Amino acid sequence: MTKGYLILETGEIFEGEWIGSKQETAGEVVFNTSMTGYQEMMTDPSYAGQILTFCYPIIGSYGINDTDDESGKISVSAVILNDLCDEPSHYQSTATFSEQIEGMGIPGLKDVDTRSLVSAIRKHQTVRGKLVKSPGRQSSLHSWGIKTKGELVKSVAVENYHYFPNSGPHVVLLDFGYKKSILKALLKENCKVTIAPFDTPFQEIQELNPDGVLISNGPGDPAELTPYFPTVKKITEAYPTLGICLGHQLIALAYGAETVKMPFGHRGGNHPVKDLVTGKVKMTSQNHGYAVIEQSLDQEQFDVLFRNVNDKSLEGMQHRTLPVQSVQFHPEAHPGPSDTEYIFKEFISQVQAAGGKAYVEV
Ligand SMILES: NC(=O)CC[C@H](N)C(=O)O
């Protein structure tokens, strides 16, 4: 057994037993409150650069399967958990949790007092940390090698187009670190899908001749992605558009709104969100650390559609005249409830209503 330590930039040290890859690593320390879904969370590209703490105390009990990865790449920088169950019991399980993180080159700590760690994160709000073998003197934070400024998106997004044939309308999935479940949701609606790199120029998107565009989720601070705001705006002016999580933030920023770092984010599978049109509350899957400031949104152009019941933060919006909608939560779920899966159907209806053509000359 090898001991390991999570050192927070604020000075606290959490002890555990080292698991997975031997590599020491650093990143923002975050927590997710979902009871299940560790496989989807670890492979969700939006967690790139982050050390993920599982609040649920037993991790690994249903193993790892061949279908639930949200990407083919390593996403989280490291995982922190309490009790590791490495003798899974599930008919679809093909590997143990330890085998999975070892195979993906992710380090982790088990037997950590995750309740105290989560309290510390909530107290400090945003906190970075480093996973080390020895709790001795550490190099300064600047040399921890934490990625910023779009490097995170670059590290997870596709570099080339990927085309998926189908019988329905053609949707370009602009990839800032998409989750496979988003692609699956589009394919389920019979869409042809072209996954395009996040930095695809607008002219090339036009050449792809999409009927609609979905701007994906992704890691990092949305406000650092300023070079892409003009393209995002042009997309929304030309095609029916759906933004999910980072995609939602980028649409808001492209129209002049501002984003803010939240105290400790929303990461979990039971975040209540109120649909302001029907008054109904939906349970949503969430994973974000930033939010759009509602007061900064041009309400002449956008209607607020969803609001978080717990902290009243903005959870979704709709353009008043263009078929452009965006949500801060994850309608594709995985992990989490699928109450808001209908968002994909609404998007496809808007795509179909637009007649399969760019309906505004640009
Ligand atoms: N899941 C996402 O797209 C996350 C968006 C952004 N990186 C945030 O943390 O707010």
UniProtKB/TrEMBL annotation:
Organism superkingdom: Bacteria
InterPro entries: Anth_synth/Amidotransfase (IPR050472), CarbamoylP_synth_ssu (IPR006274), CarbamoylP_synth_ssu_N (IPR002474), CarbP_synth_ssu_N_sf (IPR036480), Class_I_gatase-like (IPR029062), CPSase_GATase1 (IPR035686), GATASE (IPR017926)
HAMAP family assigned: CPSase_S_chain
Positions annotated to bind L-glutamine: S46, G218, G220, L246, Q249, N287, G289, Y290
PANTHER family recorded: CARBAMOYL-PHOSPHATE SYNTHASE SMALL CHAIN (PTHR43418:SF7), MULTIFUNCTIONAL TRYPTOPHAN BIOSYNTHESIS PROTEIN-RELATED (PTHR43418)
Source species: Salipaludibacillus aurantiacus
Transmembrane segments: none
Entry-linked CDD domains: GATase1_CPSase (cd01744)
Keywords: Amino-acid biosynthesis, Arginine biosynthesis, ATP-binding, Glutamine amidotransferase, Ligase, Nucleotide-binding, Pyrimidine biosynthesis
Catalytic residues, chain numbering: C245, H330, E332
Similarity comment: family membership: Belongs to the CarA family.
Protein name: Carbamoyl phosphate synthase small chain
UniProt entry tagged with the keyword Ligase: yes
Carbamoyl-phosphate synthase small subunit N-terminal domain location: 2-132
